[in-house]
Amino acid sequence: MLVVSYIREHKEEVIERLSIKNFTKTELIDEILRLDDERRATQLENDETLATINSNARTIGEMYKQGKASEANTLKETNNVLKETVKTLSDRLESIKNEIQTKLVEIPNTPNLLVPRGTSAADNLNVHQEGDIHEMPKSALPHWELLTKYDLADFDLGNKVTGAGFPFYKGKGAKLQRALINFFLDEAAADGYNEVQPPLMVNEASAYATGQLPDKEAQMYAVPLDGFYLIPTAEVPLTNMFRDTIVKETDFPIKTAGYSSCFRREAGSYGKNVRGLNRLHQFDKVELVEIANPENSYERLEAMKSHVAGLLRKLELPFRVLRLCGGDMSFISAMTYDFEVWSAAQKLWLEVSSVSNFETFQSNRLKLRFKDKNGNMQLVHTLNGSALALPRIVAALLENHQTPEGIYIPKALQNYTGFDIIK
RNA sequence: GGAGACAUGGCUGAGCGGUCGAUAGCGGCGGUCUUGAAAACCGUUAAACCGAAAGGUUUCGGGGGUUCGAAUCCCUCUGUCUCCGCCA
């Protein structure tokens, strides 16, 4: 969520930047500022009353020592009255804070000024494209048919044992999963990311801090008996590692990579978009999270983008990079690059990675800060990106590397799979 | 799962109702001595928030309560340790 003091000091700029996301509820901002004035006044009054109570209490102690019991009793009465005042003020304060919070969470992150205006995917800016987009022979198959043809995954078995969206991977399909996970983790380590293996369930506080709660509750699987949620992405535990912490400026950049299974209910989605591996309830992913100095967080975003591009290049997949327009970006992002791989057989671009800078939008709620050179507390910038999610990469590999002889495994991956073709 | 103990500043560890935001040691920082370093000695050193500053508020695992006053008493939650049980 946005920082209230920033809104106060840069109101026009905030409104201008929000307009890129087609956000026009400016009255919300005025209300927040009005409530914040009230909050500060109430806080001051409350603090002053507490100061009086504290000093009175000390005086009462002195009086008892000196045997002035009756004077002490009078002062006690005074304090009892003041305590009522404090109760009223702090209740008021609490409710003002809640009101501010409620309104604040309705305001999306302010996009970077480089973010193109627009309302849909059609307005995204293509910033890079590489790789060979060749015509496939008529006989080319979509990945779901290839999965069956080479017996790499079994959806029916998943249906029987669990339900739709929980496939079994089999044989070389299962090995390919393992190979990709290791490949992605090794690449991340080589690029300076610290590897962690996170918990697959998180508590409510974590789900709130990264914004899955309250609005996206229906997208997560829950374990109500223990108050846990299955993670929809490793971003949640990887970012919450830093919740309520103060890092050193000299620690930047703090780069973390983690592999996890991800669980998504995907309530409400259906149709051809969910065919095969395009959308699953459980899938595997290597996620990158970076804690950055606000001074150079956009350079770090470029670095993360390069890392992901390097992966796709080594997998010999044709891809393009889009800078998302205001209307197509997520609520919490300040700038997002989407990576799309060309699916030759489906004849469409498949989103395989999303790399974003959240600036202080996440760190504000996380209370993740650092002390700058001048000794001032500042919120850090947080970035994250998928590097990469397996199912769509598998889909792209199968479709793009299919040959009459079988499915070719790119060189970079052969050491991990132990085979160079699936036939 | 059962029983018991504990939770204090960067760390170790005192305090168990009143100048306690907290004794002490270690560590950190500054200095004296030294060609330099070590040792020794002296000084200094918790954090966040509000404020231009003076100053104020909050914080002794979290939340609540008792009291004029709580690190200290009570309730509750969480976590850690020990013993028993179970277990990959």
Folded structure, characterized:
By secondary structure, this protein is α+β, with helices and mostly antiparallel strands. It has 13 helices and 19 strands. It folds into two domains: 4-104, Serine-tRNA synthetase, tRNA binding domain (Helix Hairpins), CATH 1.10.287; 121-422, 2-Layer Sandwich (BirA Bifunctional Protein, domain 2), CATH 3.30.930.10. It has helices at residues 4-9, 11-20, 26-65, 69-104, 143-149, 155-161, 171-190, 204-209, 235-240, 297-314, 361-366, 390-400, 411-417, and strands at residues 125-130, 153-154, 168-169, 194-196, 201-203, 222-223, 228-230, 246-248, 254-263, 282-292, 319-323, 335-343, 348-357, 369-371, 377-379, 381-389, 402-403, 406-408, 421-422. The protein has an eight-stranded mixed β-sheet. The chain has a three-stranded antiparallel β-sheet with strand order 5-7-6. Strands 8-14-15 form a three-stranded mixed β-sheet, with no helix packed on it. Helix 7 (171-190) packs across helix 13. The protein is elongated and about 100 Å long. The structure holds one RNA strand of 88 nucleotides.
